[in-house]
Design a protein that fits this description.
Length: 476
């Protein structure tokens, strides 16, 4: 019996020896990682579980180790979380938004989103949806489509990389996985998006997102408005509320340099700014934000199944799991609460329909003014500027994915501003066709001659000047 036990122990030692040796080798050079790793929940796991080619790397540091970011690795231990993460993996692509909003093709004419604009699916589908889109596919976009990107950025992958070639070569194979938000060495939440790090560093003290916890910041890595910055070969997050966007747009031209940030609208006759999913910015200063709730509190609530409590990782609308997301604070039934949410969204939706219809009419007037003979160019320029602002404020709502619920009061205020700008753009474009100047006064040729040169006020002024001259001469 003792011989058998000794044999088993010896076999286990020999089998585990390479792993122990490899882990020990790693700590010799990577002590900055090894310290937190050995004190964290993954300390009993060997580095080789996520890093291939470790022995060759230990023998020759120039031989880079492999990095595995597959969610399945985490799922071996975190099975409930993984099972919710893959929920919806087999779901069909969502329909084009133009089917629900036919005017989108007109309002976004000239931009790729006019032809391919779908509702998002869950994170497990991010890479698939990216591959299947007909829109241009930049390597920068992949930061929020695949977790293979952040750790290879400016190495294997760069601003100029061809995403098709990267996927064909197997450099990019995974969608967004656990490591995008969790440090695999410590399991703690962390930020890997350089643009967010830069935005946080320049954030003023009075910024509405100043106190956002990591449970919100990990989402703000992607669910935020952005611009490509060709000069810096990076992404830039304005990271401001919509009220500050006109000043931001006026302060930089980077949004004009790529089709992602701005494009020439054929009917508006001017370049427009393309807003990109500002969920984080819309949420700031909302009721739930001011109560201290993070994105994860509602979108990733804790739930219990089979006696085990864990965090949902489906990352979908809370309407899909109202009980754990909402009923911890709200006393209504699920049916009553969903009805409240739908009422808020439908109110904002109705206003949005009015705004889109008014913008459509403004585009008709702008297009006509652009072709009219004798048009007043100054008035037309003002009409186009008003339409620019109308589009900015409208799309701040339209590109945001909560149908107004993240901040219903701001969504309504934003659409009301868009409506006012659209009405002014329409009216000014009509006035421009009639040759009227921006202030609404008639053209100079239509002003009566006696009004062009006010004789009486001129004579009175001349008499006053003459009297003053005579007075000073007499005093001398």
């Amino acid at each position: 019996m003792g011989t058998r036990i000794a044999t088993v122990v010896l076999f286990m030692f020999l089998f585990a020896a390479p792993a122990f040796a490899q882990g020990e080798n790693c700590t010799q050079c990577h002590d900055d990682v090894a310290g937190p790793y050995q004190q964290g929940p993954h300390s009993d796991m060997d580095c080789s579980l996520c890093h291939e080619n470790g022995e060759a790397h230990a023998a020759s540091p120039a031989e880079a180790p492999g990095v595995s970011v597959e969610a399945e690795i985490c799922g071996d231990c975190h099975e409930p979380q993984y099972n919710t993460y893959v929920t919806g993996e087999d779901a069909d692509q969502t329909p084009q938004k133009q089917e629900q909003y036919p005017l989108l093709r007109r309002l976004l004419a000239g931009h790729p989103f006019a032809e391919d604009y779908r509702e998002p699916r869950s994170h497990i589908n991010m890479l698939t949806d990216f591959v299947e889109t007909s829109r241009p596919r930049s390597a920068l976009c992949m930061f929020c489509k695949s977790s293979d990107v952040y750790w290879q950025w400016q190495d294997t992958i760069s601003y100029e990389s061809n995403t098709g070639e990267l996927m064909d070569a197997g450099v990019i194979v995974n969608p967004i996985t656990c490591v995008q938000c969790h440090n695999p060495h410590t399991a703690e939440l962390r930020v890997v998006q350089p643009a967010l790090t830069e935005a946080l560093e320049r954030m003023p003290e009075e910024h509405p997102g100043k106190e956002d916890p990591l449970q919100t910041l990990v989402c703000a890595q992607c669910h935020v408005n952005y611009n490509f910055n060709p000069g810096a070969q990076s992404v830039e997050f304005p990271y401001v509320k919509v009220a500050e966007m006109p000043d931001y747009i006026a302060s930089t031209d980077i949004w004009r340099e790529t089709g992602t940030g701005g494009w020439e609208h054929p009917d508006a006759g001017t370049m427009l700014y393309k807003v990109q999913h500002p969920e984080t910015e819309m949420y700031w200063d909302s009721i739930h934000h001011n109560l201290g709730l993070s994105c994860a509190d509602c979108h990733m609530p804790k739930t219990t199944e089979n006696g085990q409590t864990f965090t949902l990782h489906w990352l979908a609308s809370p309407l899909n799991h109202l009980e754990p997301s909402c009923l911890g604070c709200h006393n209504e039934s699920e049916e009553e609460l969903e009805a409240r949410v739908r009422e808020v969204q439908e109110t904002v939706y109705s206003l949005n329909q009015t705004v889109m219809s008014t913008m459509d009419g403004a585009l008709d007037s702008l297009a006509a003014a652009g072709e009219a003979a004798g048009v007043n160019e100054d008035t037309l320029a003002e009409a186009r500027e008003n339409y620019f602002q109308a589009h900015l404020f409208w799309e701040w709502y339209a590109a945001e994915n909560s149908a107004g619920f993240h901040n219903s009061s701001e969504a309504q205020e934003t659409l009301e501003r868009a409506l006012a700008y659209a009405e002014d753009a329409r009216d000014l474009a009509v006035a421009a066709q009639d040759g009227q100047p921006p202030n609404g006064a008639p053209p100079a040729d239509d002003v009566p001659a006696e009004d062009r040169f006010p004789v009486l006020p001129f004579l009175v002024g001349l008499a006053i000047v003459a009297g003053a001259i005579i007075y000073f001469i007499k005093r001398r």
